[in-house]
Write a structure and sequence with these properties.
CATH topology of the largest domain: Rossmann fold
Number of domains: 2
CATH architecture of the largest domain: 3-Layer(aba) Sandwich
Strand order of the largest sheet: 2-3-4-1-5
CATH superfamily of the largest domain: P-loop containing nucleotide triphosphate hydrolases
Order of helices and strands: HHHHHEHEHHEHEHEHHHHH
Radius of gyration: 23 Å
Helix content: 40-55%
Structural class: alpha/beta
Number of helices: 15
CATH class of the largest domain: Alpha Beta
Strand content: 5-15%
Amino acid sequence: MSNPYADWLRQHGTKHFNLGTKAGWIDFVNTGIRPDFRTLTMDEMRGLDPETLEDYNQARNVWNSNPATVKTPQLKNAHDLIDQVMASSHRDGSSVRGAVALDALPGLGKTTIASSYARHFDQQQRRRYGHTTADGNPRLPVAFIPLSAGMTLKQLNQKILRFYDHPAATRTSKAELGTLAMDCIHSTETRLIVLDDLHFINFNHRTGVEVSNHLKWLANESAATFIHVGVGLSRKKFFDEGLGGDPSLSQTSRRTTSCPVAPFTLSTESGNRAWQRLLSSFESHLKLANNTEGTLTGLGDYLFERTQGHIASVTNLMDRACAAAITTGTETITYDIVKKVVIDNAAETASSRR
């Protein structure tokens, strides 16, 4: 007899997207919403055979851990600002386009903000202009380039070429890499480039200055708008172009619009409402037999104390609390369940100080 939950897991289980590759990015863009399945009652679960129950619970773990991206005020404000900057992308010819820097503390959803915007932009461009360019090349409206520690100019260009699956990524001289990277951007008509984890670049070091200058060259020579994502970019002198540069003379500072991302707050009425809406959104998504309206919102103050309003900590807490609710058979999230859940070190440390 077919096990519907095993079938669901095979087709719609946990997905792994390597956004730093063309194939991974296209999979991310094209993957649709998971199909829903009915939440069983306690009596119905007791009627399942052990293997089917195990698969049902695993399917619920996948479902509970993957809610739709919540349109938080932070995400909406950031997307609105990126839309403003993208207005420059309509300029003809060699006119320089603007850029955005998502500069914030860890765990505030910067990469989600950037990737969700880029995903929609990619879908929009393909719908409007098709999947191939006028020259017959595959269209790649977006390039998502994750950076790594100690990134040099050569390594940056190699990362770009690897995204485009260019065969010369590891075999070409340093002098040619930049030209090949630009050729890829031009030939596929890339219009948006996301550079994730830009804080790995030390702009106070010679290699960091080289990277900064190269990024300006890419912006000058291509028709792409850049979204820079990182932690403490201002402190790392990204906007000043490093090495004690004069901010008033910095092209990067003039071209780039800073977009800070703030944690949730309970200190204002609007902040409190936004926090409650976030919890309500999570609450409506959960597949727990005893889940009822107000389960999470009723714990709002305690959940904020545990997470300090950082979206990454909130999602970690939800994943683990749901798994605990299933494992223990309580089938709802309670104060006692949440209290036993251990999450990231930053959130736990800050919570213990309160």
